[in-house]
Design a protein that fits this description.
GO molecular function, one term: structural constituent of cytoskeleton
Coiled coil: 161-265
GO biological process, one term: protein localization to nuclear envelope
Strand content: 5-15%
Structural class: alpha+beta
Number of helices: 6
Number of strands: 13
GO cellular component, one term: intermediate filament
Region (Disordered): 1-94, 350-371, 445-496
Shape: rod-shaped
Strand order of the largest sheet: 2-12-11-6-7
Order of helices and strands: HHHHHEEEEEEEEEEEEEH
Radius of gyration: 72 Å
Length: 648
């Protein structure tokens, strides 16, 4: 009820009474938020007091003064003379006085009640001031504890950043070692390839010699077969001659036997004829002697004719026998002579054939020895070639495996290097965000004024880490920042910061050669994805930035990219990088270091065969919303624990 009827008046009087009389309330400091808020409420109540309350105060003062004047029966004006009201009668004055006395009693009663309420309010105010100061002290202690945690977290972040920097330097050293090892492996592979090519050339020469030896052996084999065929023919002829000789010998024997038989038969027939002739002559003589006396000259003539006829017949028979058997004997003798000549010729041919056969056998033995020697040499050479081929294949396989492992390690190191760069960027962005949040919280708590929180007075030192990028690798100065406080719960949801990293690099190739990687301002790497060597003579590498800057590099005429290999073209600023002119090339062009960047590769005809778009890694600081998407930095290792320690 006191609040409804005269609350503002009572509070105003309590303010005036507090300003006049001493109080036991502890004076509220500048940093006590509760006491400041109560004083601000009291001042606002005094300032915005309603006209009704002001009029009631004036009327109360007027009534009290009038009641005092009436009780003393000496109303006076400002000059000390009594006040005469000709307009009021005595009864009216009494009624008015009675009313004024009633009102005065009410005012006094209300005044005593207000005093009691004022004392209660003072006690409550003292209690609130004590409670508020205790809460503020607790809050300051909490801030100190949280600042200690933040210092520890910042130390942990700084230590982790230093470790990441050391790990990055170590990885870069490993990357350089891997590059040198890769170059060594490539040189070893090139040496192995050259030795392999030399071995292949020697093997081809040996194969050619072997083919020639095989051709000679084949010709000798053909000649041997021809001689064997001739020998077989001669042997066949000899066998047939021996058969014919045997047949002729048998025929000769048969003819000789027949001749002997015929001669014996002729002798026998001759003897028979002679005996017959003798008997006939005897008989003729006998008949003649017997008939001579009887026949006379006619018989003698007849006998002489008969005798002459018999002699002619005998002569003719002998002539016929001599003609028949003599011709046969001559024929047999001629045939025997011819067969003897043939046998002698066949014997000579046989002896010649045997002599040629022996010579051919000798030659064949020598040729067989040479062939066996050549075959043994070829087997040894073939064995050595196969062994060398297997060793070369194993060596090339091992070198290829080592090269692939080195490339994998190189790519892994590159990925780790990129990740370290991204982490470094994220750490820098997050530390900058924490710096801004700490600065805002210090300004809000009054620990530091806005003029003291200028960014120029706390500029972070930077230095180049040797790669020309100027990344910040020095830990953040903590001399002033460790004194700051931050309370995440007091920030509105619109001030929640999020770190978003975007990267959009894209490689396009229409042929086997593609742009594998582009490090702005440092190096461009080309990769041959095919199994064949590709000439890059008169090919052109071009770079064009978003601002219109354009540079190019033209390869030499004898430049070749090997199968499944990588060529690195370094910028002219990277003269400290080792280069061999084959896989590591130092260009006379300064590559563009700004992004976005478009890199292209064109052949000798100017046709673009590969393209690489470098959009760069960008970090965006955005305002998040409650329940929105959380940045992936919040869940990363120490940063997640740091945010959980700060924000709860």
């Amino acid at each position: 009820m006191a609040d409804k009827e005269g609350g503002p008046v009572t509070r105003a009087r309590s303010q005036r009474s507090r300003s006049k009389e001493p109080t036991n309330v502890t004076p509220v400091t500048r940093a006590s938020r509760g006491a400041l808020s109560l004083e601000a409420v009291a001042e606002a109540d005094n300032l915005f007091a309603t006209p009704t309350s002001t009029q009631s105060q004036k009327s109360g003062r007027t009534e009290s003064s009038m009641s005092i004047n009436l009780n003393g029966n000496s109303p006076q004006n400002s000059s000390g003379s009594r006040v005469h009201s000709p307009q009021l009668s005595r009864a009216q004055e009494k009624d008015e006085l009675h009313n004024l006395n009633d009102r005065l009693a009410k005012v006094l009663t209300q005044n005593s009640r207000y005093k009691e309420e004022n004392s209660l309010l003072r006690a409550q105010l003292e209690h609130v001031a004590e409670t508020t100061s205790a809460d503020l002290q607790d809050q300051i202690d909490k801030y100190k504890i949280e600042m200690g945690k933040l210092r520890k977290c910042v130390d942990v972040v700084t230590a982790e950043k230093d470790r990441e920097i050391l790990a990055k330097e170590k990885l870069e050293a490993q990357l350089r070692d891997a590059n040198s090892e890769l170059n060594g492996l490539r040189s070893r592979v090139d040496d192995a390839e050259s030795r392999m090519k030399q071995a292949e050339r020697e093997a081809r020469d040996r194969q050619q010699k072997l083919a020639e030896a095989e051709a000679v052996a084949k010709e000798l084999d053909t000649e041997r077969q021809r001689l064997e065929k001739q020998l077989n023919d001669a042997l066949k002829k000899l066998a047939s001659a021996q058969d014919s000789l045997e047949r002729e010998t048998l025929t000769k024997t048969d003819l000789e036997n027949q001749l002997k038989t015929a001669m014996e038969d002729s002798e026998f027939q001759t003897s028979l004829l002679q005996s017959k002739i003798q008997r006939q002559s005897v008989s003729v003589t006998t008949v003649d002697s017997a008939l001579r006396p009887q026949s006379g000259p006619d018989l003698a003539v007849y006998t002489s004719e008969f005798r002459q006829m018999m002699e002619d017949a005998q002569a003719e028979l002998e002539e016929n026998m001599e003609r028949a058997y003599g011709q046969k004997i001559d024929n047999l003798e001629q045939r025997v002579g011819m067969q003897r000549n043939q046998i002698q010729d066949l014997g000579k041919a046989l002896s010649d054939s045997q002599r040629d056969l022996k010579e051919n056998q000798k030659d064949n033995k020598e040729l067989m020895k040479q062939k066996q020697k050549l075959e043994a040499d070829m087997e040894k050479m073939d064995h050595k070639y196969r062994q060398h081929q297997l060793e070369s294949a194993d060596r090339i396989k091992n070198l290829s495996a080592q090269a692939s492992e080195t490339m994998k390690l190189y790519q892994q190191l590159m990925e780790e290097n990129r990740e370290l760069q991204n982490i470094n960027t994220e750490i820098t962005a997050e530390l900058r965000m924490y710096d801004n949040l700490l600065k805002e919280e210090e300004i809000r708590l009054g620990i530091q004024s806005p003029t003291q929180a200028e960014p120029s007075s706390r500029k972070r030192p930077r230095y180049s880490d040797g790669d020309g990028l100027g990344r910040s690798t020095t830990p953040v100065s903590r001399t002033n920042r460790l004194k700051r406080g931050m309370e995440r719960r007091d920030l509105p949801s619109s001030q929640v910061r999020s770190v978003i990293k975007t990267s959009a690099n894209k490689s396009i190739a229409s042929g086997p050669v593609r742009i594998l990687e582009v490090m702005p301002g440092k190096v461009i790497r080309l990769e041959n994805q095919s199994d064949e060597n590709i000439p890059l003579g008169e090919w052109t590498l071009k770079q064009k930035s978003e601002l219109g800057a354009e540079v190019s590099h033209k390869f030499q005429k004898d430049q070749v990219i090997s199968a499944r290999s990588i060529i690195s073209v370094y910028s002219a600023s990277q003269s400290h990088v080792p280069h061999d002119g084959n896989t590591e090339i130092l260009s006379g062009t300064l590559w563009i270091s700004s992004t976005p960047l478009l890199t292209s590769l064109a052949d000798t005809f100017g046709t673009e065969v590969a393209q690489y778009e470098s959009s760069g890694d960008t970090v965006q600081m955005g305002d998040g919303e409650a329940g929105g998407e959380v940045s992936r930095v919040e869940n990363r290792g120490v940063f997640g624990s740091l945010k959980s320690a700060i924000f709860g």
